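mind reviewing this stuff:

——
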Amino acid sequence: MENCFSTGRRVEYKIYISRFPRDAVAAVHRYAAGVPRGETVRVYAVGGDGILFDCLNGMIDFPNAEITNVPYGNASDFLRAFGEDAKPGFRDIRKLSEAPARLVDVMHCGSNYAINHLGVGWEAQAVLNAQAVFQRFRSKWITPFVRHIYTVGGYCSFLNGEVMNQRYQALIDGEDVSGRYCNIRIASGPCGGGAMVLSPYARPDDGFLDVIFSKSAPLLDVVKSAMDYTKGLFEKYEIYFRRQCKKIEIRSDVPIRVHMDGEAFYTEELKVEIMPRQVKFFAPEGADFADYSHRAYKKPCETGPVGAEDEARR
């Protein structure tokens, strides 16, 4: 960052090192508040999804602010919406500083905003399990095993009976879809988990929430479907169904486990709304959102003839 902005370029800049989760929220807000509304302020979230979440929530109130993610964290799931090989382009600070901005959707949930995905149920419990390990073992040796810890945390969450059989009162754009679910994934972006395409139909600028419900089912059925679920092949199994919507409201009689772009918390009720094209996100010249729908299972129609394309996919 110093090499880019301190060598003859007349650009005011500040480098801030985040000390703990959400520390950057206030720091970014203070800096953006000091920039005249007629001038553009660009926020470079250097790290993974956690620091992008913090920076997003710090700049969301400023229409003259733009944001990007420089991927040097454990995962940068939102950037994979630009394609599997998008990350290197976001590491060229000089080119990124001259890149155009585009409008993307964000998800509003209470006082928080997320840009990629939000999970309720076992996905959130997996994050909580992993965070418990990180808090107990604060050492650099654990860094190479971060993804493995999240994977183990996910499978351990399957053993939590309350999570796997929790009853939710849920409304999607006013439609009642209440029931027992082990997971509810609400996404704006298609990718998650570092290398997974969990919501292959989601697109960050289409103005919709893409929601996948996972019905409570016998443990063996959930475990058998888990690997395909992480590949976006949820349509192979009857325990999953998908909806697109503008707003979803969720309540439960017991605490709801939630994670937003990897930041986990508990709540008793949840309302998530899409805010279409709300944030300016700058990306390398020529970068565009990838279409991951070809990675989906796309279950053939059971009532009509199966075409050649569907037969080949089978």
